[in-house]
Specification:
Helix content: 25-40%
Number of helices: 22
Low-confidence stretches: none
Mean pLDDT: 90
Shape: elongated
Radius of gyration: 34 Å
Structural class: alpha+beta
Strand content: 15-25%
Largest sheet: 7 strands, mixed
Length: 591
């Protein structure tokens, strides 16, 4: 009996042993073979090259130059890191050791297994000299990279913006940024960052236990997307240099009536190349605290009282309202008195009998005071908003400002105060709370010229996909029927004796427009005779506007000029507008 138990035990033992051998050698083969393959196969993401930005004639205005980064193996101990940095210092004497150590520690972590970049954008000549020494140290890596370059610098900085090293928020927005480590910060570079980043590629490889690639199985190339702007860099350069030569600060918009931007100039500006490698604190502070605000994209983000440039739109609203007769000549004295306060016209003696066409031609303030009282601020505000004021135009740039078209409700919400009649008189001549961007004024001018409200755009094409203009039909039938009256008044501004811009316009064909002189500080009631603009301190002078379209009979283009603290619109901007139209005519833009 005892021997039978022993034999049975031995039999069971060998049976279990045989089954275990079978399980390990036969049944588990497929499982472990699959796991072994998965452990050896690895997918490596390939960073795309940032897309090139071209102007309308396919000239590159933002492109990439081949450069090299120096990186270190992650998870180095403190003393080893110090040795590596000291060794690098011998090869590149002008580096800052403290800064490099700080950079390494910032981007190194327990979860990071990639080389940590400590020096960026080294040129080829430098790399050729130091590569033989770094290549013998397995802790150093030389990685190819690309440096963004902007050949037009200040001229196009407000349009293009720039790229710089990505931050944590950037990494959340787009997974590709974790590969490229750069992101767009302003302008087109920021607005179209997701497109310009491109699409990551993939490389499937076989690696050994030390993560060394043994074989490449498959490669999917990264995809780059290029962008073509509607901007004419020659025109942009011409206008920028014109403002620079005449020392006139401000904004210029040149746009087709369908919204296609040919030039968007902000002066003064900045060199966007300064930001690509990382701008110094001193240079940043110099730009930030410059009283002329070169960092502000003035056509899109600058808010100014629009002054008399709103009068054509208000005249159109009134003419179509049924409450106002545009042909009736009303008396327009040198001022209107309400509540013991005088609201003055720019001409102390007044303009006498005035209809709507003369009111536009001569920019008669007292005519518009009476118009505003009759039509009412709420009705004017509502219709001005549909005509392009007080809302974003939708241009493809970041940080566009909305502006303000005030009304009674707006003031209650903003200041918890009632609306006063005098505020209507201020608003109706584009003063008081009223604020607009130069682009909004240009879009409104295009509406009057063509009868359609355009959505302005800068990017004409993404790869081979052409962008179609967007035009909105916002005017009522009565407003469309009244457009010719407004256009006639704007023609007289630039062509008829007594027009506020006539003496300053010298274009090769007739244009129409509206001047504006927007005060930046109030004149005390006790002052009977105002000083001339050139007698005032610079920052007390009025902003000067001139917004135009041309040719008059067949409108094709809008040119809007704002000169900060320029004084009178016609004298400050008329010559600039004329030179722009002459340039456009010679280059064949006017058909």
């Amino acid at each position: 009996m005892r021997s039978k138990i022993v034999i049975t035990f031995i039999f069971l033992f060998f049976l279990i042993l045989i089954y275990r051998i079978y399980d390990l050698s036969i049944l588990s083969y497929c499982k472990y073979n699959k796991l072994a393959r998965e452990n050896k196969e690895k997918t490596v993401l390939l960073p795309p090259i940032r897309g090139i930005i071209f102007d309308r004639f396919n000239k590159p205005v933002a492109f990439n130059k081949l450069r090299f980064d120096i990186a270190l193996k992650p998870h180095l101990k403190k003393n080893i890191l110090k040795e590596k940095i000291d060794f690098l210092k011998q090869l590149v004497p002008d580096i800052n050791e403290t800064k490099l150590i700080k950079t390494y520690k910032m981007y190194d972590s327990l979860y990071n297994h990639k080389p940590v970049t400590i020096l960026q954008y080294m040129d080829e000549n430098t790399i050729y000299k130091i590569e033989p020494f770094l290549s013998i140290d397995e802790d150093f890596y030389i990685l190819p990279s690309y440096l963004r370059e902007y050949p037009y610098k200040e001229v196009l900085a407000n349009v293009l913006g720039y790229v710089s090293r990505a931050n944590i928020n950037d990494l959340k927005n787009n997974s590709v940024i974790s590969l490229t480590q750069i992101s767009g910060k302003r302008g087109v570079e920021k607005y179209y960052d997701n497109i310009l980043q491109g699409e990551a590629g993939e490389k499937k490889v076989i690696v050994n236990a030390r993560n060394i690639i043994l074989k490449t199985l498959n490669v999917k190339k990264p995809i780059t997307h290029n962008i073509t702007l509607s901007i004419d860099t020659n025109l942009q350069t011409f206008i920028y240099n014109l403002l620079k030569k005449e020392n006139k600060r401000g904004a210029v918009v040149v746009m087709k009536t369908n919204g296609e931007i040919l030039a968007l100039v902000s002066y003064p500006s900045y060199d966007d190349n300064l930001f690509v490698k990382g701008i110094s604190v001193d240079k940043w502070n110099k730009l930030l605290f410059d009283i002329y605000n070169p960092l502000l994209n003035k056509p899109v983000s600058g808010l100014y009282p629009p002054g008399s440039t709103v009068k054509p739109a208000e005249g159109l609203i009134a003419a179509a309202s049924g409450k106002w007769n545009p042909w009736k000549k009303i008396e327009c004295p040198g001022y209107i008195e309400i509540g013991g306060r005088k609201f003055r016209d720019w001409k102390p003696s007044g303009h006498g009998k005035t209809d709507l066409i003369k009111a536009i031609k001569r920019s008669v303030d007292t005519y518009y005071y009476q118009l505003g009282l009759k039509i009412g601020i709420n009705y004017l505000s509502k219709n001005l908003k549909k005509m392009g004021f007080g809302k974003k135009t939708g241009i493809d740039l970041p940080n566009e400002k909305t502006g303000i078209v005030p009304d009674k409700k707006w003031k209650v919400n903003k200041y918890h105060q009632p609306w006063f009649i005098g505020e209507t008189l201020n608003a109706v001549i584009g003063q008081g709370y009223f604020l607009a961007t130069p682009l909004q004024v240009a879009v409104n001018t295009a509406l009057i010229a063509s009868g359609k409200l355009p959505k302005p755009f800068l990017v004409e094409k993404i790869d081979n996909n052409i962008k179609k203009p967007v035009l909105k039909d916002v005017l009522s039938k009565k407003e469309k029927r009244s457009l010719w009256i407004i256009r006639k008044g704007m023609w007289e501004v630039c062509n008829s004796p007594g027009g506020t811009a006539t003496r300053h316009i010298h274009t090769p064909f007739p244009i129409a427009g509206k001047t504006g002189t927007a005060q930046v500080y109030s004149i005390p009631q006790a002052v009977k005779k105002r000083k001339r603009e050139d007698e005032l301190a610079y920052f007390k002078r009025s902003h000067a506007w001139l917004s135009t379209y041309g040719p008059y009979r067949k409108p094709q283009l809008v040119v809007t000029v704002l000169i900060e603290h320029g004084g009178h619109g016609g004298s400050a901007a008329g010559d600039i507008v004329s030179k722009i139209y002459t340039w456009l005519y010679k280059k064949g833009y006017i058909k």
